[in-house]
Amino acid sequence: MDTSTRERIRGINRAIRDEDRRLRARFRWLERQDALGMACFAGSYAAMAAVAAAFVLGALPWWAAVPLMALPMSILHELEHDLIHGLYFRKRPWVQDAMFFGIWLAKLSISPWKRREIHLRHHRESGQAADFEERMIGLGLPLGPRRLFVTFHPLGAVATTPALARDNRDFDILAMFRPSLPAFVVLALICHVYAASLGLGVMAGVYPAWASTAAAAAFVLWVAPNLLRQSCIVIMSSFSHYYGDIPANDVFFQNQILRHPALWPLQLFCFNFGSTHIIHHFVVDQPFYLRQMVARAAHAAMEKAGVRVNDGGTVARANRYAASET
Fold it and tell me: Which single residue of 2, 157, 211, 216 has CA 20 to 30 Å from 88?
C-alpha cells in the first residue's frame, strides 16, 4: 500500500472512530447492541405481519403492499450482514443461527451461512478476481443485457459463474448454490403456480383455485418485495464498488460514496447503502444504524482525503477505477 494512502486511511478511520465514541457517549442506549438488533428483527417481522394482514383483508392494494413489505425486508438484510460480522449475540451463536433462519425465510435468497463465507472473503478480496460476492451481482460486467439480467433476476448470479470458475480454481458452483436450494425451490414454485394462475405456461388452469390464490398472495407479499429490495441493493452495491484495476488490500480504492439525490428511491430500499457502505469497508464493526449516524463526519473526512463521490462513470467503465471522475 502506498504510504500516502495508508495515512489517508488512518485519518478516515480516526474520524469514524471519534464520531462513534462521541455518539455512544451521548446516546447510552447505543451500548445495548444485542437488544437493538433483536428489536430490529422483531420490529421488521411485526411490520411485515401488519402489511400482510392489511393486504389479505383487502385494506391495502398490491402496489402499496409490495414496497411496504420491501422496507422491513431491507432491514432484515442489514441485520443479516451485521450478524455475519458477529455484531449481535456474539456469545450466543444459537441466537445468531435462529435470526439467520428467520432472515433467510423472509428474504428467500442465498443461505445466510453461505453468504457469511463469501462476504468475509469479499473483505479480503474486494475488487479482485476472487471477490465472489460482488462479481455474482455484476461487478466488472459491462452495462448490457447480461448485467441487467444479473441485477434484476433472482437467479441472475448463475450467469456470472463461468467467468468465476475460469478465474478461480476454488470456485465450485455446486458448493456455492447447494445450501440455498430450499429457498430457490420455493421461489420457483411460487412463480410457477402464480404464472399458471395468470394463464401463462403449459400448466395454465391445472392448479386448484386455493393454490392460485395462495401463490398470488405469496408473490405480492414475498417474491415481489424481495425482487424490489434485491434489485436496489444490487444496483447500489455493484456500482459503489470498484473492480479489476485497484491494488489488493487497499481499502481506499475499494468504494466510492454514492449519494446523488436521484438515487434516493433506490437507497430507500437498502438503508442508504450506496452512501454508507464505504464506511463499513473502513470500520467493519459498526451496526448498520450507527453507520448512518456517523456518515456526515465520515464523509467529510473521506472527501478531504480524496475519496470519490457520485462517480457515475463507473457504470460505463465496468467498475474500473481508472479514468477521471465524472
Answer: 157
Grid coordinates in use for 187?
421461489
For 297, the domain range is 3-314
Look at the chain and report how many structural domains it folds into. 1
Residue count of the chain, please give it: 326
* C-alpha distance from residue 143 to each of 150, 250, 314 (Å): 11, 26, 10
Set of cell numbers at residue 87: 455484531
Question: Do the domain assignments include residue 240?
Answer: yes
Phi, psi (degrees; rounded to nearest 5) at 72 = -65, -30
Confidence of residue 323 (pLDDT cuts 50, 70, 90): confident
* Residue 241 main-chain phi, psi, to 5 deg: -95, 150
**Tens digits of per-residue pLDDT, 187-207?**
999 999 999 888 876 676 788
Give the side-chain half-sphere CA count within 13 A for 79. Answer: 33
Distance CA 216, CA 35 (A): 36
Beta bridge partners of 255: 241
Better-predicted residue by pLDDT, 267 or 325: 267
Q: What percent of the chain has pLDDT over 90?
A: 90
* Domain-located, residue 324: no
326 domain-assigned: no
Residue 155 DSSP code: T
Q: Under 8 Å CB-to-CB from 261, ≥6 apart: which residues?
A: none
Mean pLDDT of the chain: 94
Helix orientation angle between 3-26 and 295-305, rounded to the nearest 10 degrees: 160
Percentage of the residues of the chain whose pLDDT score is greater than 70:
97
Rounded to the nearest 10 degrees, the angle between the axes of helix 181-197 and helix 209-218 is: 120
pLDDT of residue 77: 98
Question: What is the residue-wise DSSP string for 9-58?
Answer: HHHHHHHHHHHHHHHHHH-GGGG-HHHHHHHHHHHHHHHHHHHHHHHHTT
Residue 96 resides in a domain: yes
